[in-house]
Write a structure and sequence with these properties.
2 domains, Immunoglobulin-like, alpha/beta, binds alpha-D-glucopyranose, TIM Barrel
C-alpha cells in the first residue's frame, strides 16, 4: 500500500513538473525523449536541426492593447488584472478586442524579409492562442480574424498570407496551435465558474461536452493541415491538456490525420513526452548541459511574446550569445517577435534583427549545419564543429557593454594547423600557454561576439 502511495506521489510530481507553471512550460526530462520511428519524420527532424535559428511570431487580439497573450482572462494566482473592473467586465472587454483588431498595414512580406535578413531559417506562427481567437478563417467558429473587424479585407485569412510569404523566402513552416481554448463553451462552459487554465466542468459528468471539444480541436487542426499548403511543424501549446491531466484529447488520431495531410510532419506536443513530442521546448531558458536529442529553446527578443508598447529589448550581441550557447549544446533557438497591432514588425525590432543577421552573414559557418563537439565550452567561449569533423568553431560571447579583449584563451579544442577569424578569413597568431590555447585578436574589432575557425 505504502509503495503504491509513494509511486503515485512520484508520478504526480512528474506530471506537475511537466505542466506549465506561471505561464512558463517546464522542459520534459531527458530520459523521456522518444525518437520518431517514421523515416520521413526523422529526415525532416534532422533537416530542421541543421537550421538552428527561427522565429516564433505571436499575433492576436492581445496585440491590440499590447498586453500578455491570453493569460489575463485566466484566473490563477500569479495573474495580475485591472482591479477596477469585475471579472465578467474584464472578460467581455478582452474578447471584444476582436472587434478592434483591424491590421490595415498587415504586411507579411515585410515580416518574411526581415526574418530572412535576420538569418532565420524557419518560422512558427500562432494560428490560435489560448484565448481561442483564430488567426485563420476557421469554419468551426465565428471567433476568427476573418469574421471580425478585418472581415472583407483581401488578406483576412491571415495565416494563408503569412505562410505564403515565408514559403516564398524558403523558410521551414510551423503552425502554433493551443490545445486549450478559453473561448469555447466546450472548454470553459459558462455554467461553471472558471477556476484556472483547465477545462472548467467535470468531464466524467459531461463526457458528451468533452467529446465535442475533442472533435472541434481535431477539425480545427485539420483545417490548418489541409488548407494552407505544405507545413513542416505542428507546435501544440497548452501542455496541461493531456491524458495524464484527465483531459485526453485523442492525440494519436490528431497526429495520424495531420500526417496524412502533411507527410513527415514534425509534431511538438509540448511537455507531454513520448511519440508526439518530436522535439523538446525549454522556454526562456537554455538547458544546463549539452543534450543529444532534438530540442529548441524559445526565447523572446524583448521580455514578451507579443507586441507591448514599451518593450525591454535584448541586444543583438545578447541574442547571438544565446544562439551560440544553444547551438554548442545541440539545440535550435526560436526567437519570439510580436508584430504590431497594425501588422508590421516595428523599427526597433527590425534594427536588432538586422544586426543579428549581419553577424550571421559573416559567421554563419560556426552556426548553421554544425554539430556538437564534446568540449563545448570554456567560460564564455562556445564550440561547435563541422559535420565532417575537419573544423571546429569557437564563438566568444560578450556581456552587454563589454568589449573584446586583445587575446582569448581556452582549454582543449587545440588547433593542429591554424586559427582563422571567420568573418574575414584572416589567419591569427596563437600560442600554447600550459593547458591553454591563447589566440591574439586583431585590434579594432567591433564590440560583438567573435567567431574563430579552428583547423
Ligand atoms: C508559454 C506561454 C504561452 C506562449 C508560449 C510560447 O506556453 O504560456 O502564452 O505562447 O509559452 O512559448
Amino acid at each position: 500500500m505504502q509503495r503504491i502511495f509513494i509511486t503515485l506521489m512520484a508520478w504526480c510530481y512528474v506530471v506537475v513538473l511537466a505542466i506549465a507553471q506561471d505561464g512558463v512550460h517546464k522542459q520534459s526530462a531527458a530520459a523521456d525523449y522518444q525518437w520518431p520511428s517514421e523515416p520521413d519524420v526523422l529526415a525532416k527532424l534532422h533537416q530542421w536541426q541543421d537550421l538552428k535559428f527561427g522565429v516564433l511570431l505571436h499575433w492576436g487580439i492581445y496585440s491590440v492593447p499590447g498586453i500578455v497573450e491570453s493569460w489575463s482572462i485566466c484566473c490563477e494566482d500569479w495573474i495580475k488584472r485591472d482591479t477596477t473592473r469585475t471579472y465578467e467586465q474584464y472578460r467581455k472587454w478582452y474578447f471584444g478586442l476582436a472587434d478592434e483588431f483591424k491590421p490595415v498595414q498587415f504586411d507579411p512580406q515585410q515580416w518574411a524579409t526581415v526574418m530572412r535578413q535576420a538569418g532565420m531559417k524557419y518560422m512558427i506562427f500562432t494560428t490560435k492562442h489560448h484565448d481561442g481567437f483564430c488567426m485563420y478563417d476557421s469554419r468551426e467558429t465565428d471567433y476568427t480574424i476573418a469574421r471580425h473587424a478585418f472581415a472583407g479585407d483581401a488578406r483576412s485569412d491571415v495565416l494563408r498570407h503569412v505562410l505564403d510569404a515565408f514559403r516564398a523566402e524558403n523558410f521551414m513552416l510551423g503552425t502554433y496551435f493551443s490545445k486549450a481554448d478559453w473561448h469555447s463553451q466546450y472548454y470553459w462552459w459558462d455554467v461553471y465558474p472558471n477556476r484556472g487554465r483547465n477545462v472548467n466542468y467535470p468531464i466524467k459528468k459531461y463526457p458528451w461536452r468533452w467529446e465535442q471539444f475533442c472533435q472541434f480541436t481535431y477539425r480545427q487542426i485539420e483545417e490548418i493541415m489541409a488548407g494552407y499548403g505544405p507545413v513542416d511543424i505542428l507546435w501544440l501549446d497548452g501542455g496541461w491538456v493531456c491524458a495524464e491531466n484527465n483531459q485526453d484529447i485523442h492525440m494519436p488520431e490528431i497526429v495520424s490525420m495531420a500526417r496524412r495531410h502533411q507527410p513527415g510532419l514534425i509534431v511538438v506536443d509540448r511537455t507531454i513526452r513520448g511519440p508526439y513530442e518530436n522535439y523538446q521546448t525549454p522556454e526562456q531558458t537554455i538547458p544546463h548541459e549539452q543534450l543529444a536529442y532534438p530540442w529548441e529553446s524559445c526565447i523572446t527578443l524583448s521580455d514578451d511574446w507579443g507586441y507591448v508598447p514599451q518593450p525591454r529589448w535584448k541586444s543583438p550581441s545578447k541574442v547571438i550569445g544565446l544562439l551560440a550557447e544553444v547551438v554548442a549544446k545541440g539545440g535550435n533557438m526560436v526567437l519570439g517577435v510580436g508584430p504590431t497591432p497594425q501588422g508590421r514588425i516595428q523599427p526597433e525590432a527590425v534594427q536588432r534583427l538586422q544586426a543579428i543577421g549581419q553577424w550571421l552573414e559573416k559567421n554563419g559557418k560556426a552556426i548553421y549545419g554544425t554539430t556538437i563537439t564534446p568540449l563545448y565550452h570554456d567560460g564564455n567561449i562556445w564550440f561547435t564543429a563541422s559535420k565532417d569533423g575537419a573544423r571546429r568553431y569557437a564563438i566568444c560571447t560578450l556581456s552587454d557593454g563589454e568589449s573584446l579583449p586583445a587575446t582569448i584563451a581556452w582549454k582543449g579544442n587545440e588547433p593542429a594547423k591554424r586559427v582563422r577569424l571567420l568573418a574575414t578569413g584572416k589567419t591569427l597568431k596563437f600560442k600554447r600557454d600550459g593547458e591553454k590555447v591563447v589566440v591574439y585578436l586583431p585590434s579594432g574589432l567591433p564590440a560583438e561576439p567573435v567567431a574563430l575557425e579552428i583547423e
